[in-house]
C-alpha cells in the first residue's frame, strides 16, 4: 500500500494496528521526496538521517506501549523555525551559515508528540512575500502548475503536503502566510487566534530565541484534512512555558455546534478596495450553497460586519509599521519625506502603506485603539453568527513574479491589473483583530488550479471554524492530489 497521501489520522491508526512501521513510512516519504522534489523544490533543508533515527525510536517507543499523538508520523517544518543543527536563514543570503543551538518551542512540541521531522520547507526572502523563492534555496513551484507560485511565506510546506512528501507541516502567518499557500495548493491550514500558540524560536537570524509577544503574527498547522489540522493544533496550542505557561493552562472551548444545520454563517465575497476574481467568487458561492443545503442559517450581509475598508487600512498600517521597523535610518528618512508629501485626502492602500512605514509610537497607539474598536465589533457580530466565509486572495495561484521591487508588481484579476499588495486585504480581515481562520479547499480546480476560502471564527474559539471545516469537507469534498 502507498502511504504518502494518507492522512495523519489514518497513519496513526495503521501504526497502532501494526500495519506499517514509522521506519517504513519515513523511507517511503524520503523516496518520494528524492523522486519528485527536484521539480517542486519544497524541501530546502533535508534531515533524512535524523528522521530515520527518530522513526526507529518511534517504533521502539510504540513497542514499549508508549502513546503519543503524533508518534511515528512524518512531518516537515517551515525553514523559519529554529532546529538545532540545521540552518535557519529566512532566505537571507547573509545568514546562510547560521545554525541555532536549540529547537523552537513548536519543534520541541512536535518531537515530544512523537513526530518524525523530515526536514525544513522553503520560504521567501525574510518571509516577506506571497511567493516562496530566495537566493539560497531557489523557487518552490506549485504542484498543480510548475509555472505558478505555491504561495508564501509557508509555500514550501503547502507544496510538500500537496505533493505527498509529509502528513503534516507547521508554518506561520502574518499576511496570510498559512492561508494563501493552502488556497493556492489545495490543502488545509489554520491561523490560530493571536497568542494561542507559542512562537519562541520562530525568529529571524541571528536574533536570540526569546519569548516575544508578536503583533499580528502567529504559528499554526497545515494538513490535508480538517481533522488533521485539529490534531496538530492540539499539539501546538498553549502558552510559552517560560512566561504565561508558568501560571496558565490552556482549555479551548468546544465548537459551538456539531451539526452543519446549527451553524449561523455570514458569507462575504465583495471587498470595497479590490474585486474578487470569478474563480474565487464561484468557490465562495459553492460553500454558501453547501451550507444552505446542509440546513445552516446563511446571510450575505450584516450591519454588524466591521467596515472592510477601514479594517484594510488599519491592517496595512500595522503590518508595514512592523515590517520596516529595522530599516536603515537613511531609508526611513526618505520614506518620511515621501509620506509628508501625501495629500490628506489620499486614503488609498498605497498611502496607508507609506504612512504605516513611518508611524510614530503615538500613531501606532492610535491605530491600536481603532483595532480594539474593531475587535469589539467582531465580538458583537459573533453573538449573531458563528463564522464568516470569505476569500483568502482574489485569485487562484498566479504565475511566478520575481520582480525585486515588490511595489512594482501587479496582480491580474480577470484581465485587469491591480497593485500586488492590495490582495492582502482578505488575509488581513482576520489577522488585524487576531481572529482564528481556517483555510479549506472549496472548489473543483479552476483551469487546473485549486481554490480555497477561509472560515473566520470568534477569538479563542478556534474549534468552531475547524469543526465547520470538517463538516464542509464531508459535504463538498476536500484535498485532491495534483494530477
State the gist of this model.
The protein is an alpha+beta fold and 483 residues long. The protein contains 14 helices and 17 strands. The strands form 4 sheets. An 11-stranded mixed sheet has the order 1-3-2-8-10-9-16-17-13-11-12, with helices on both faces. Strands 4-5 form a two-stranded antiparallel ribbon.
Descriptive notes:
The chain is globular and about 70 Å long. Among the domains are: 8-259, Alpha-Beta Complex (Amidase signature (AS) enzymes), CATH 3.90.1300; 308-371, no CATH class. The strands form four sheets. The protein has an eleven-stranded mixed sheet, sandwiched between helices. The protein is built from 14 helices and 17 strands. It is of the alpha+beta class and 483 residues long. Pfam families: Amidase. Residues 24-464 form the Amidase domain. One of its GO terms (molecular function) is amidase activity.
Amino acid at each position: 500500500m502507498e502511504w504518502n497521501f494518507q492522512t495523519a489520522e489514518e497513519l496513526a491508526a495503521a501504526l497502532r494496528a501494526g500495519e506499517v512501521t514509522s521506519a517504513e513510512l519515513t523511507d517511503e516519504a524520503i523516496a518520494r521526496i528524492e523522486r519528485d522534489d527536484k521539480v517542486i523544490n519544497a524541501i530546502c533543508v533535508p534531515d533524512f538521517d535524523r528522521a530515520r533515527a527518530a522513526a526507529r525510536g518511534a517504533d521502539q517507543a510504540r513497542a514499549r506501549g508508549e502513546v503519543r499523538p503524533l508518534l511515528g508520523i512524518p512531518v516537515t517544518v517551515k525553514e523559519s523555525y529554529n532546529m538545532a543543527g540545521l540552518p535557519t536563514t529566512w532566505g537571507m543570503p547573509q545568514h546562510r551559515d547560521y545554525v541555532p543551538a536549540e529547537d523552537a518551542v513548536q519543534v520541541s512540541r512536535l518531537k515530544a508528540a512523537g513526530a518524525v521531522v523530515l526536514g525544513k520547507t522553503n520560504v521567501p526572502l525574510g518571509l516577506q512575500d506571497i511567493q516562496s523563492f530566495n537566493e539560497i534555496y531557489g523557487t518552490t513551484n506549485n504542484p498543480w502548475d510548475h509555472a505558478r507560485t505555491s504561495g508564501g511565506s509557508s509555500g514550501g510546506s503547502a507544496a510538500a503536503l500537496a505533493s505527498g512528501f509529509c502528513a503534516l507541516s507547521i508554518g506561520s502567518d502574518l499576511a496570510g502566510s498559512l492561508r494563501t499557500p493552502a488556497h493556492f495548493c489545495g490543502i488545509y491550514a489554520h491561523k490560530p487566534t493571536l497568542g494561542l500558540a507559542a512562537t519562541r524560536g520562530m525568529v529571524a537570524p541571528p536574533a536570540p530565541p526569546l519569548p516575544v509577544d508578536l503583533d499580528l503574527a502567529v504559528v499554526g498547522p497545515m494538513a490535508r484534512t480538517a481533522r488533521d489540522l485539529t490534531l496538530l493544533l492540539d499539539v501546538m496550542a498553549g502558552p510559552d512555558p517560560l512566561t504565561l505557561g508558568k501560571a496558565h493552562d490552556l482549555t479551548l472551548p468546544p465548537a459551538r455546534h456539531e451539526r452543519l444545520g446549527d451553524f449561523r454563517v455570514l458569507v462575504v465575497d465583495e471587498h470595497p478596495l479590490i474585486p474578487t476574481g470569478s474563480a474565487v467568487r464561484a468557490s465562495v458561492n459553492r460553500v454558501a450553497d453547501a451550507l444552505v443545503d446542509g440546513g445552516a442559517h446563511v446571510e450575505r450581509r450584516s450591519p454588524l460586519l466591521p467596515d472592510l475598508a477601514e479594517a484594510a487600512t488599519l491592517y496595512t498600517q500595522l503590518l508595514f509599521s512592523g515590517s520596516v521597523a529595522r530599516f536603515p535610518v537613511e531609508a526611513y528618512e526618505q520614506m518620511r519625506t515621501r509620506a509628508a508629501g501625501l495629500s490628506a485626502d489620499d486614503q488609498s492602500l498605497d498611502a496607508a502603506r507609506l504612512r504605516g512605514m513611518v508611524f510614530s509610537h503615538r500613531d501606532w497607539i492610535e491605530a491600536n485603539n481603532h483595532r480594539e474598536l474593531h475587535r469589539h465589533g467582531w465580538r458583537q457580530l459573533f453573538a449573531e453568527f458563528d463564522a464568516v466565509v470569505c476569500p483568502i486572495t482574489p485569485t487562484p495561484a498566479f504565475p511566478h513574479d520575481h520582480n525585486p521591487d515588490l511595489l512594482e508588481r501587479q496582480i491580474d484579476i480577470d484581465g485587469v491589473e491591480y497593485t500586488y499588495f492590495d490582495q492582502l486585504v482578505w488575509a488581513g480581515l482576520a489577522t488585524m483583530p487576531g481572529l482564528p481562520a481556517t483555510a479549506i479547499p472549496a472548489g473543483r480546480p479552476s483551469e487546473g488550479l485549486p481554490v480555497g476560502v477561509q472560515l473566520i471564527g470568534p477569538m479563542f474559539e478556534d474549534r468552531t471554524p475547524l469543526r465547520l471545516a470538517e463538516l464542509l469537507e464531508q459535504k463538498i469534498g476536500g484535498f485532491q492530489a495534483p494530477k
